[in-house]
Design brief:
Distance between the termini: 28 Å
Helix content: 25-40%
Bound molecules: zinc ion
Number of helices: 11
Radius of gyration: 21 Å
Structural class: alpha/beta
Strand content: 15-25%
Number of strands: 11
């Protein structure tokens, strides 16, 4: 079925779907409310024809590798959750505490490995690139597990645990040191009774650019900060050209899938959700595959019989 046929047959006014008014005329349409398809053979048919696949991933993918988010019930580091420490104000007030928190998360990641969902995505990208087809991963995860799995085309919209930005000169650098600085060695334990290390600011991670020595901060978009506009532009460009979109391990009512996937769906492009439960947005997508994405994704992205491997 051509995209045009699908579009003309299935699209109705966006008002019908109870959505916010669209910003452009192009988006002034959306899929009618219908039960999404969970038939893997139907998905595989669409997948086999896709040339540009955009995969939006969220915390659910990391959770299957045992990566904590420090949000929600029980999600505490000492007495705090991520939204209390991941702010510019918290960093200004207590840089040592915020660095202890990030140091803990960095060190924890050294013991975590990509799971079958990360690996399926990376293998799919490598295989399809040999056929002149592209896969881009747009992630809100900061743990670099996609990179570790071998994903090459990766847009990390929230930044990375393994990058820093200088608060003086603005230099952004990759940083995989363990510990990131001597003063943080052995610090960052998450137990609620642990006291702050109160590391003097001059002993926290410092910029290594010649003559700078400014205080480094994690290269991470904190609560209250805006996303990197260059990355957002790249995301927009990828979403414009994609002819299949996967939403993996993130509910489509939660940012960023809430922002990106409905926009793709509104153009008539098939969107397939892979997450634990259906959400109120699920009915706006063509496909929904419930369950752990480490189980559902590998068979979905495996080599299709129509793929010619040279
Ligand atoms: Zn600097």
């Amino acid at each position: 079925m051509s995209l045009f046929q699908f579009t003309s047959r299935r699209l109705v006014s966006q008002a019908y779907c109870g959505l916010k008014p669209p910003s452009s005329k192009k988006q002034r349409i959306c899929l009618e409310m219908a039960r999404p398809n969970s038939n893997i053979a139907d998905f595989r048919e669409v997948f086999s024809k896709a040339k540009h696949i955009a995969i939006i991933t969220g915390a659910g993918v990391s959770a299957e590798s045992g990566v904590p988010t420090f949000r929600g019930t029980g999600g505490y580091w000492r007495k705090w959750q991520a939204q209390e420490l991941a702010t510019p104000e918290a960093f200004a007030r207590n840089s040592s505490r915020v660095w202890e928190f990030y140091h803990y998360r960095r060190e924890l990641m050294l013991s975590k490995q990509p799971n079958p969902a990360h690996i399926a995505i990376a293998e799919c990208e490598a295989r399809l690139s040999k056929q002149g087809r592209s896969v881009v991963v747009i992630t809100q995860n900061i743990d670099e597990l996609h990179r570790k799995a071998g994903t090459k085309h990766l847009l990390e919209i929230h930044g990375s645990l393994f990058k820093t930005r200088c608060t003086s000169c603005g230099n952004v650098a990759e940083n995989y040191k363990s510990p990131i600085c001597p003063a943080l060695a052995g610090k960052g334990a998450p137990d609620p009774e642990i006291e702050d290390a109160k590391i003097p600011v001059e002993n926290l991670p410092r910029c290594e650019e010649q003559g700078c020595n400014g205080l480094l901060r994690p290269m991470f978009v904190w609560f209250g900060e805006t996303l990197n506009s260059d990355i957002l532009t790249e995301v927009e460009n990828e979403l414009e050209i994609c002819d299949l979109c996967l939403v993996v391990g993130t509910s489509s009512v939660v940012y960023p899938a809430a922002m990106f996937a409905p926009q793709v769906s509104a153009r008539g492009v098939p969107v397939a959700e892979f997450n634990m439960q259906a959400t109120p947005a699920t009915n706006r997508f063509r496909f929904h595959f419930p369950g752990p994405c480490g189980t559902t994704l590998p068979p979905a992205l495996a080599r299709h019989k129509s793929e010619i491997i040279s």
